[in-house]
Amino acid sequence: xxxxxxxxxxxxxxxxxxxxxxxxxxxxxxxxxxxxxxxxxxxxxxxxxxxxxxxxxxxxxxxxxxxxxxxxxxxxxxxxxxxxxxxxxxxxxxxxxxxxxxxxxxxxxxxxxxxxxxxxxxxxxxxxxxxxxxxxxxxxxxx
Amino acid sequence: xxxxxxxxxxxxxxxxxxxxxxxxxxxxxxxxxxxxxxxxxxxxxxxxxxxxxxxxxxxxxxxxxxxxxxxxxxxxxxxxxxxxxxxxxxxxxxxxxxxxxxxxxxxxxxxxxxxxxxxxxxxxxxxxxxxxxxxxxxxxxxxxxxxxxxxxxxxxxxxxxxxxxxxxxxxxxxxxxxxxxxxxxxxxxxxxxxxxxxxxxxxxxxxxxxxxxxxxxxxxxxxxxxxxxxxxxxxxxxxxxxxxxxxxxxxxxxxxxxxxxxxxxxxxxxxxxxxxxxxxxxxxxxxxxxxxxxxxxxxxxxxxxxxxxxxxxxxxxxxxxxxxxxxxxxxxxxxxxxxxxxxxxxxxxxxxxxxxxxxxxxxxxxxxxxxxxxxxxxxxxxxxxxxxxxxxxxxxxxxxxxxxxxxxxxxxxxxxxxxxxxxxxxxxxxxxxxxxxxxxxxxxxxxxxxxxxxxxxxxxxxxxxxxxxxxxxxxxxxxxxxxxxxxxxxxxxxxxxxxxxxxxxxxxxxxxxxxxxxxxxxxxxxxxxxxxxxx
Lengths: 143, 535
Fold this sequence. Notes:
The structure holds two protein chains of two kinds. Chain A is mainly alpha-helical. Helix content of chain A is about 50%, strand content about 0%. Chain A has one domain (about 5-115). Chain A contains seven helices and no strands. Chain A starts with a helix and ends in an 8-residue tail after the last helix. The relative contact order of chain A is 0.14. The mean pLDDT of chain A is about 90. The two termini of chain B are about 30 Å apart. Chains A and B meet through helix 5 and helix 7 of A and helix 2, helix 6, strand 4, helix 9 and helix 10 of B.
């Protein structure tokens, strides 16, 4: 299992978008491109190995050697047979993807932690509460 | 085992109730020690200080102790419950991770037997607790808006948390339906308050507030209590309460921060470990005098567990909301379905509490995990239509007490000190399930009236066991309750319980305000009876 398998997997989960959604493939974002095998944690590596080995046993080649359609079909099948394995890989993939600076910017966020700058929420015009006040009502008496 | 010097009052747990009790007892000049199995949290370590804030919320700052797995977190066997247990072990307890939605009970919540013929009345009423609610609000600092017609008059300290775009959309939906709603009572500073900074709308209040705007007791009650002389010992885990030959509590056996087993002697013991931790300690405190666990002559320690099943209903809108920005659980709420109307098919009721949206990581992981978002082709379009386009409503259902819902000691599972872990046996009753179904229906109606084009829901939501109540209930009859009407054990006259365990019924809303009002009330009762406290 090598980085090619990793990039093939994450590209299958989050491929590049087009048209109105020009998002990069997960395989193109820095965190995955720069990740060496040594940086995968044990669980991540073990899960990815399951997928890569399944590709080898079925197609004679690793995940990176398959066509996008073959990869999708294989992962869908494994999602049914090994749901925990695929869930772990997907959660890790999308977590890292949506923490990427470029990705955060493209979805409309600032690429930063929430603290200390915080966020702006529009102030409320409380006249929106007038219908409730006009309707009235009361709390239930207990005695 | 070493024996520590005797103290006047020993409080077990430094969370919502333990902090309030310690603060309220300082004017007695007694020697007060509080033991907390966790430590202090540092706001600079909270997830929102880092780019990985959403990922850390799934791990180290998860609400579920079985996921966090820190040494100070005891495991909870909740495999026999459709709702998993949430808590936090550290100074501040659950207030570190709560949403800070801070309503009071209503007068009717203390009288469900008289009004609706179910469960039991409390031995105290709203008027008894009202001054303590007010006192607690002052210390806590509550934002909100006076004048809710569905509450007795009360005072808030600060203006309400802004609704934001999503909240205003929901408000318009409620108005279109002609239903009650009101801005949340929130334990969140919307302007500088008693040294706390005002809310910066970071979003995920439930992983700790880096801004210090949320009123967790590590920054409200505890600094005042410690300055006044209370000794707070962190990383000290109580295993059991010990008793003398006369049947009085005489201290606790605990493990100190080095893991050394010690005995702390005490004249008075106060349990403040909430609805799971308190019965766990009582049941583990077996002796010749109390073979079934301490304070358990009624057999009710650990029984009548109430959890507030949640129906969590999410709407997706074409119009953008504020996404994750703003306090997650504090925006607005509705009591339209709070009081009993038997025509609905159930007794008692629920509030609808709004929740803002999720950040991008949670939007993607929960969306894919729940089948609402695809991975692969089509992911980006679906993600963009969901991210920062959702608002949710949670129906918080009043859970009625049932003896079959229990906390017991697990025969095998233990914590890092070898103390038996709690085991939860819990089922959702037919009445509650009918309430959940109704909540889904009504929340969906108002979300659609607000403009939602897609609805998804879970009822009951599994990761929603935030409110832990009823397992050492209060009452005047020793055969039907564990503590009396002022929190003292019927069986052990120098043992008190001041947390959610003593709740007789649960109401249909967040309990922290009531837990703290009870802690203040009970400790006030103790102060008024010091001369004959053990009679």
